[in-house]
Amino acid sequence: MLTARRxxxxxxxxxxxxxxxxxVGSAVAQAAPEIPAGSSATGIPSxxxxxxxxxxxxxxxxxxxxxxxTPTNIPNADIAVLLLxxxxxxxxxxNQANQMVFPNTLSYLADELAMRGIASLRFDKFGSGRSGLxxxxxxxxxxGFEMQVEDASAAFDSLGELTGTSAARTVVLxxxxxxxxxxxxxxxxxxxxxxxxxxxxxxxxYLDLLSDQINVSLEGxxxxxxxxxxDAEAVRSSLARTVRSLRENGIVPAxxxxxxxxxxxxxxNERFLTEADRYEPADLAAELPDSLPVIVTCxxxxxxxxxxxxxxxxxxxxxxxxxxxxxxxxxxxxxxxGPLAPGQLDAIAPLPLSREFTQSLTDWLDLIxxx
Length: 371
Known about the structure:
Blueprint (H helix, E strand, L loop, with lengths): L1 E2 L4 E3 L5 E2 L4 E2 L4 E3 L20 E9 L2 E9 L9 E5 L20 H11 L3 E5 L21 H19 L6 E6 L1 H13 L5 E5 L6 H18 L5 H21 L8 H5 L7 H8 L3 H6 L7 E6 L7 H8 L7 E6 L27 H15 L2
Parallel strand pairs: 1-7, 8-9, 8-10, 10-11, 11-12, 12-13
Antiparallel strand pairs: 2-5, 3-4, 6-7, 7-9
C-alpha cells in the first residue's frame, strides 16, 4: 500500500473564467497543505454543523483522506450522501489552495445535509489536501479520468461501511466535473440508489466544453482590446487541431499554440482529457433508470456552464425522475451573489450557498428520503 504524499499533481482543470484566459485550476498544481479541523482553507475559523471525523479509504493502492460529517442531536435520515468535487486538484471542502480558490462548496453542502439529519462523506481528490501524490516525479505518473471514477467508487463503498447505509439508500451529489464522475459511477455501479444530484454539471463532451469556454474567453479578450483578432484566430485554429488530435490519437500536438498549454493542454494531461472526452453526459443521463430521482441545477449567473447546455443534459433524464432547478443568483460554486454581476472574484470567495439552491435541494431531499 502506498500512502499519498503532498507533491506536484498532474490534474487538468476544465473550467476557464470567461473574463479572460485564466485557469481556475492548474494543469500541474501543488497539493494543498493540510487544513486543521474547524478551520476553512482560508484560515477563517468555521463552525461546521454536525461532527467531522477524519477518515481514510484505499483506492489504487493509495490512501485517500476525507471527512465523514454526521448530524448532532438530529434523528438520522436513513440516507447518506457522497459528495464529489469539480475539476482540478479540489480538496474535500471544494477548494483549490494552490490557486487561492476557496468557495467551500462541499463543506457548505455537508452543513446543509447535517442540518437535515443526513450524513455525508467528502474527500481530498488525488493531488489535493492530504491525498497528494506518491514520492515520484509527476511526469512518471499517468492520471486518467477512469482513475477518478475508481477513486469515487472506493469512496462510495467506504461511505456504506462507515455509516451502515446500503447502496440503495445512498445519494451521490456531483458538482461541476464531479457530475460527470457521478454519472459514470452510476453506470459502473448499476445500483440505482435513492437519488443522484448533478449540480452545475459538465453537460457536454469534455473537449467541447473546454473549446467553448476558451472561445468565449478569446472573444472577450478581443472585445476588450487585450488581444488582437489575428492572435485569437491563431489560438482557435490551434485549439481545433489539438482537439482533433486528442480524439484521433490521444496526443497533444507539440507545435500547438503556447497559450493552450497554460489552460491544461499538456502531454501530462493527455490521458485524462482523452478518457473524459469519451463520455457524452446526455447519453449517460438517458441511460439512468426511470425510477432514480435526479436533481439537476444550473444558474443564469454561472460563468462556466450555461443553462442551455445544462438543459440539454436534463432533457435526457426521464421526466418523472427529474427535478430541474434553474437558479438566478448563484455562481458556479453555488455561492449566493444576489443582484451582483458574476466575476472572477466571487468565484474564489467562500460565499454562503444560494438560497434558491438550498431550498431546491431541501425540497428534493424531502421527496427522496421518504421513498
